[in-house]
TrEMBL record:
Any one cellular-component term (Gene Ontology): plasma membrane
Species whose genome carries this gene: Enteractinococcus helveticum
Gene3D superfamilies linked: Calcium-transporting ATPase, cytoplasmic domain N, Calcium-transporting ATPase, cytoplasmic transduction domain A, HAD superfamily/HAD-like
Signal peptide: none
Keyword Cell membrane belongs to the record: yes
Biased composition (Polar residues): 645-660
Region annotation Disordered: where it falls in the sequence: 631-660
Family per similarity comment: Belongs to the cation transport ATPase (P-type) (TC 3.A.3) family. Type IB subfamily.
Name this protein carries in UniProt: Cadmium-translocating P-type ATPase
Name of the gene this protein is made from: cadA
Entries under Pfam families matching the protein: E1-E2_ATPase, Hydrolase
Length: 660
């Protein structure tokens, strides 16, 4: 039975087969068999004269069997903690019905209550099955290469540093780095990204990924039992123990309702007995106990929350708690960090300016020859963009300014426009900076020969995501520690009007607090500097469960991948779940309000009230399971798509002459 209903939850076997039939589930089997006994007893009583004793025996069998499912837990709750739970109400009602001689009604009450509780347990199991399925993504064995031999070992034995051999069609057992081989990995089950990811030596790969072709050698960076996938499972399982804020509201309604119903039943019995036939009013008092039982209210919200969280995990959204799920459904404004969230967090050469006598290839090659010796964060972008890299000698780096060296007998300098004058490129360089680029100037023999524009580009899906959010009524704000010029340029391309730039970590948290004055806010980020804002926002969303630990720990929700297009889907999914929760609460309360006067006035008898009330539980459980339905989405741009082609411009005498 569900603890939400005031009964002690029956222990669920961890290794229960996900698709086991009801006949293999004792909690379902006992009510089912008892239901058959009840039905046969009713048929004997109604249609075959002289079989009253046999029918009564069947009623008693059904009553005792079903009562064994909830009476012990109800009594333990009463005597150990003084808890007046739903099971206690059902126990009192069934006992009263027996005392009054309504054996079949008592059996029906026990049957419907126990079968509804069993259905709830199976519903919760079904909702959790998607979460437990994550564990099945980890294979039981792994193939490792050691001392020149290949052998198979249990995944539990894997330690960082082991070399894994991953053939086509095999699933990766733990996180690692590709050492050799080229292939594509199917990560759809991990991140929700539908397009396979191309990998090569040096790329990080996640546990649970499937190798689609070729053979890869992967060096393990995590143990087999402690990797990104097991961490995701742990995050998801936290949600199973937190029913959410709305569930606690349901509990607050149920707690005073139970003693209130007991008092009401006593008043109905006592006052009615003073005015009329005591037997009639005692019976009605028992009916009141059943009619006002808030079990449907208590079980409907947890089923919805767990079902919704389990479904979200299937498309790459890890929601840590029921509270987070419900709050996510009420979000009306989204604040997004720029670097790593809206952008790739991978600086890329976007444009190259050249002067007369110099070519794009020469300028990039000269710059790369020096930057290969530099620790500057833009060095990798320039090295990657260069078609070839000549050899540089006599390298000298000036921290914060640039680097110089000798290439083919000529002195080459690379640095910022604040250190090296742009000369005739001043105008075009200013235009690049206005577009949010960081510009590197290249000098040859102390004369400007080129300029390279580098920028952390927007993710391919960013503009479409922002448009979808604004069209569906969400407010959008960019929060960044970057300079205002770069932030405004990227915000313009993304379609974001509200930009807060040059913010320190505490400034982001303060900005989130300001936005909250106008409605619930979700903060999305991926770095350590986002942690305060993620923690202070009603909902913090970490972009990538493998992002900064501080960000993931501070967030309420984590995306397992880096595809921003998951955001609108997550918001819509949680919003739908919130609507279902509201429906269940209203329906549950309406049932209680509607049944009470009918029970007090005697319009409905005990059997009728039991039938209506317990069927209502089945309805709210079924409605709650709708939160676990997800719609398939079309393929979205993948984070691994290469950056835009580099455009080049040649400037003559201070003016641009064209673009290549």
């Amino acid at each position: 039975m569900s603890a939400a209903c005031g009964c002690e939850a029956s222990e669920q076997t961890v290794d229960r087969q996900e698709h086991a039939g009801w006949w293999a589930d004792r909690a379902m089997l006992i009510p089912a068999v008892s239901g058959v006994a009840l039905l046969v007893g009713l048929c004997l009583e109604w249609f075959i004269p002289g079989t009253g004793l046999a029918a009564t025996i069947l009623f008693w069998l059904a009553l005792v069997a079903c009562a064994s499912q909830f009476v012990p837990g109800a009594m333990r709750g009463l005597f150990t903690s003084g808890r007046l739970g739903i099971g206690l109400l059902m126990t009192i009602s069934a006992t009263g019905a027996v005392i009054l001689g309504f054996i079949e009604e008592a059996a029906a009450l026990a049957f419907l209550y126990s079968i509804a509780e069993a259905l709830e347990d199976r519903a919760m199991d079904k909702a959790r099955s998607g979460l437990r399925a994550l564990l099945s993504l980890i294979p039981t064995n792994a193939t490792v290469v050691a001392a020149g031999t290949i052998r198979t070992i249990p995944v539990e034995s894997l330690v960082p540093g082991d070399l894994l051999n991953l053939v086509a069609g095999e699933r990766l057992a733990t996180d690692g780095v590709v050492v050799s081989g080229h292939s594509s990995l199917d990560v759809s089950a991990i991140t929700g990204e539908s397009i396979p990811v191309a990998v090569e030596p040096g790329d990080q790969v996640l546990a649970g990924s499937i190798n689609t072709s070729g053979v890869l050698e992967v060096e393990a960076t995590a143990a087999g039992t402690d990797n990104s996938l097991t961490a995701v499972v742990e995050l998801v399982e936290q949600a199973q123990h937190d029913k959410g804020q709305r569930a606690r509201i349901a509990d607050r309604i149920a707690r005073p309702l139970v003693p209130g119903v007991l008092i009401l039943a006593v008043l109905v019995a006592v006052l009615g007995a003073l005015l009329d036939d005591p037997g009639v009013w005692i019976e009605r008092a028992l009916v009141v106990l059943v009619a006002a039982s808030p079990c449907a209210l208590a079980i409907s919200v947890p089923v919805t929350v767990v079902s919704g969280i389990g479904a979200a995990s299937k498309f790459g959204v890890i929601i840590k708690s029921g509270v987070a799920f419900e709050r996510l459904g009420g979000i009306r404004h989204v604040a997004l960090d720029k670097t790593g969230t809206l952008t790739r967090n991978q600086p890329t050469v976007i444009e190259v300016l050249t002067t007369d006598g110099s070519s794009q290839t020469e300028v990039l090659g000269w710059a790369a020859a020096l930057e290969i010796h530099s620790t500057h964060p833009l060095a990798a972008a320039i090295i990657t963009a260069a078609p070839h890299t000549p050899v540089a000698r006599q390298i000298e780096e000036t921290a914060g300014h640039g680097i110089t060296g000798i290439i083919d007998g000529a002195r080459i300098s690379v640095g910022s426009p604040r250190w090296l004058r742009p000369g005739s490129l001043t105008g075009p360089v200013q235009e690049l900076e206005d577009r949010g680029m960081t510009v590197v100037i290249v000098h040859r023999e102390d004369q400007p020969v080129g300029a390279i524009g580098v920028r952390d580009e927007l993710r391919p899906e960013t503009a479409d995501v922002i448009q979808e959010l604004t069209e569906t009524g969400y407010g959008v704000t960019m929060l960044t520690g970057d300079n205002t010029r770069t932030a405004n340029a990227l915000a313009l391309e993304a379609g974001i009007d509200d930009v807060r730039a040059e913010l320190h970590p505490e400034g982001k948290a303060h900005a989130v607090a300001e936005l909250q004055e106008h409605g619930p806010v979700a903060m999305i980020g991926d770095g350590i500097n986002d942690a305060p804002a993620l923690a202070s926002a009603p909902i913090g969303i970490a972009m990538g469960a493998k992002g900064a630990d501080a960000a993931v720990e501070s967030a309420d929700v984590a995306f397992t991948g880096h595809d921003l297009s998951v955001l609108p889907r997550a918001l819509q999914h949680a919003s739908r779940g919130r609507r279902i929760i509201n429906q269940n609460i209203v329906l549950s309360l309406a049932i209680i309000v509607g049944l009470l006067p009918l029970a007090i006035t005697g319009v409905l008898g005990l059997a009728s009230v039991v039938l209506v009330h317990e069927l209502a539980e089945v309805i709210v459980i079924a409605n709650g399971l709708r939160a676990g339905r997800t719609k398939a989405t079309t393929s979205s741009p993948h984070p691994g798509i290469p950056a835009e082609s580099i455009s080049t411009t040649t400037a003559h005498a201070g003016s641009q002459s064209g673009a290549s």
